[in-house]
Specification:
The complex is a heterodimer.
Chain A (H helix, E strand, L loop, with lengths): L5 E8 L2 H14 L6 E3 L7 H4 L7 H27 L12 H27 L23 E8 L4 H13 L4 E5 L1 H8 L1
Antiparallel strand pairs in A: 1-3, 1-4, 2-3
Chain B lengths: L16 H13 L4 H27 L14 H25 L9 H21 L27 H34 L3 H11 L6 H34 L11 H27 L8 H31 L3 H12 L3 H16 L4 H4 L2 H28 L14 H24 L5 H11 L1 H25 L1
Classes of the chains: A alpha+beta, B mainly alpha.
């Protein structure tokens, strides 16, 4: 199991506007590093406030799509012009217009699949009963609860954790808790 | 983005986030009602009957069908094009409306995408079983073989279809499943029993609502929408090429790709409405799939139905303008010949009926809309029947002219696909949330009825203040 040496301070909110203000305040004014924010739906504006870098999933899709599309055109051209040339309806052997529909379809298909699997890989999602990379701090996160999590090493001085708790409370958190990944393990069972 | 308070709310009933979760997820948690079981029993029976007919077609051969040398495509291909057409609305709602930032799509996109997948599955059955030796269906794929390495013909639209339909099915599945992951996590976190929690944990892949994951999720959805949109247009254009690239009068025309695509969206939206009007009533989802949603979808049906109507007029015009005696005869036969009954059903169902949707009252009369959507789907089936059968029955050589009637096996297979479609949809409604929970929550604070009412009050206060000033100055 993923037993990192960290303790997490969690602040629970039930309104996304308060959440956004809290994130702004904690990151920009208090200059504390937010480990993660959890929400039941994507909150607009939070990506910039957290200083998130734009994902490169579309780049992956583009590269794979273009490459596989070109490979498919080369394959079709080899089949029809070199390997087994036959005259179909008076068309030339190298019938590029005929190859366009399948070129497009293969490009889209491979781009879509590569992006989907890149998404799963980068989010560390996997079809398993337990996912140790993605802790579910509270079952209400996928319902109506928003969470800001700040983390520090277990051996760090307790003032750090107290500062985190104060910051969250000042910003209107409904509840503030300290948890480790081991606590989540126990809760699951 | 600013939204005018005069616009109808997209979510009624003063909902909060946990109510939205409850309303939608509860249907996956409790036993379905008697109506569900009745519908399920009917669909499974139809599916079983269709399965028998499909088996007979494979075992005894295509002689079980009513086809002959002249009319070699009948019910089978009509059904294929009908189902593929129906499948197009789902991707349009999910992908195209996402690109157009239409928030109303959030209540209908999950069911519409599911409908697409099931419709394309039904469609895919037909190319497989209409082959003489369906157990050799893998021949269509290009793989090195010992027959000289004989390859499939990449010049043929029938092969383009194989790639297009497979791609469409797989990309729709990916798009649908991507959107489902956060909602399946919602179902997982409410699960009481260990088994249920385990199943939905596997399905939701360990989703935990992390902001980084939501960022990647949104970007993935947007890019998938971006590539799915040209996919929608290309797939039905390629299906239309099955006919347009031939030489048969009535088939060999460049109007087919836009005509077929518009017709697909037309029939697809009609089928989405048929399903959703039933679902919203039986699952008490009227607060999410509002009358406003139905209104907007009817407008899309009006537009695409009118495009189909213009395509009909274009065909007739080109038959006259080309002065081709074959083209002219084909169209004269369509409205006067042996299949004219089918032609007139098609015309009344497809051209006349959508025009009723110019009237707001009729767009918002749900019983009328439901009846119309069934009429439209019947009309679109007849459209494909008219194009295929009437053109084939009387083409260039009069000595080959023949008539065609679908055999009971062909009709049975069609009934079977209807059974498959409704069975799959009923199971989907039982096991997965039929509305995109996370997406609906994300529009609650901009389009929920509480927000609108507050904004309207502000607007009215502002107006009253203005009028007050106006009165004072005069």
């Amino acid at each position: 199991m993923n037993m990192d040496n960290k303790k997490y301070v969690l602040g629970y909110f039930d309104d996304e506007h308060q959440l956004l203000h809290a994130v702004k305040n904690i990151r920009q004014e208090k200059r504390m590093d937010i480990q993660n924010v959890h929400s039941p739906f994507p909150v607009h504006g939070i990506d910039d406030l957290l200083g998130m870098k734009r994902t490169r999933i579309p780049v992956m899709g583009f590269c794979v799509g273009i490459t596989c599309g070109i490979l498919m055109v080369v394959f079709m051209s080899w089949i029809h012009a070199l390997d087994y040339p036959l005259v179909y309806g008076g068309k030339p052997y190298f019938a590029l217009p005929s190859f366009i529909p399948i070129w497009f379809e293969v490009t889209v298909l491979t781009a879509a699949f590569s992006m989907f699997f890149t998404f799963l890989y980068s989010c560390r999602l996997k079809p398993a009963v337990k996912n140790e990379f993605n802790p579910v701090w509270d079952r209400r996160i996928t319902n109506d609860l928003f969470v800001i999590s700040l983390s520090a090493d277990k051996n760090d001085p307790p003032e750090i954790f107290q500062n985190y708790k104060n910051a969250l409370n000042e910003n209107g958190a409904l509840k503030v808790e300290e948890k480790t990944l081991a606590d989540i393990e126990e809760e699951e069972d | 983005m600013y939204e005018s308070p005069i616009r109808e709310p997209l979510i009624n009933g003063n909902k909060n986030y946990s109510q939205i979760t409850d309303d939608i997820v509860q249907h996956t948690e409790k036993m379905p009602n008697k109506l569900w079981f009745l519908a399920f029993a009917l669909s499974v029976s139809a599916l079983a009957y269709g399965g028998i007919c499909m088996f007979l077609s494979v075992f005894w051969g295509i002689g079980e069908w009513g086809l002959n040398k002249t009319i070699d495509w009948g019910w089978g291909i009509t059904n294929f094009v009908w189902w593929v057409g129906i499948g197009h609305a789902g991707t349009l709602i999910s992908a195209v409306l996402l690109l157009f930032r239409q928030k109303w799509r959030t209540a209908v996109n999950r069911s519409a995408e599911a409908m697409t997948i099931f419709a394309v599955l039904c469609a895919g059955l037909f190319p497989a079983i209409h082959m003489g030796r369906p157990w050799l269906a893998f021949f269509v794929f290009p793989y090195p073989n010992t027959r000289g390495s004989v390859w499939p013909n990449f010049n043929s639209p029938l092969l383009w279809d194989v790639f297009a339909i497979s791609t469409y099915l797989l990309v729709s599945l990916l798009f649908w499943y991507t959107g489902l992951i956060p909602d399946l996590a919602t179902v997982r976190d409410r699960a009481q029993s260990k088994v249920r929690r385990a199943i939905y944990s596997v399905l939701s892949m360990g989703w935990n609502g992390s902001a980084r994951h939501w960022h990647r999720f949104e970007v993935l959805s947007l890019v998938l929408a971006g590539i799915a949109t040209p996919l929608v247009f290309s797939v039905h254009s390629i299906v239309s090429f099955d006919f347009a690239t031939s030489v048969i009068p009535g088939w060999h025309t460049t109007i087919f790709p836009p005509y077929f695509v518009a017709g697909a969206i037309f029939s697809g939206f009609a089928m989405v409405l048929t399903l959703l009007l039933i679902a919203r009533k039986t699952m008490n989802l009227e607060d999410y799939i509002t009358v406003g949603h139905v209104d907007v979808m009817c407008k899309i049906i009006l537009v695409t139905g009118s495009v189909v109507g213009i395509a009909y007029i274009t065909e007739l015009f080109m038959a006259w303008y080309s002065q081709s005696p074959y083209e002219q005869y084909t169209f004269a036969t369509r409205f006067l010949g042996k299949y004219s009954w089918a032609y007139w059903i098609m015309m009344s169902c497809n051209v006349i009926t959508p025009q009723f949707f110019w009237f707001r009252k009729l767009r918002r009369n749900l019983l009328f809309v439901f009846f119309m959507t069934i009429v439209i789907n019947v009309g679109m089936w007849y459209e494909r029947f008219v194009i295929i059968v009437s053109s084939l029955s009387q083409d260039y050589l009069p000595s080959s002219w023949m008539l065609y009637q679908g055999s009971w096996v062909e009709v049975g297979i069609f009934a079977g696909t209807l059974g498959l479609f409704f069975t799959a949809f009923l199971l989907f409604a039982r096991v997965f949330p039929v509305i995109a929970i996370a997406e609906v929550k994300s529009i609650l604070h901009t389009s929920g009825n509480q927000v609108r009412e507050k904004e309207m009050k502000k607007l009215e206060k502002g107006k009253a203040a203005e009028e007050g000033e106006h009165v004072l100055t005069h």
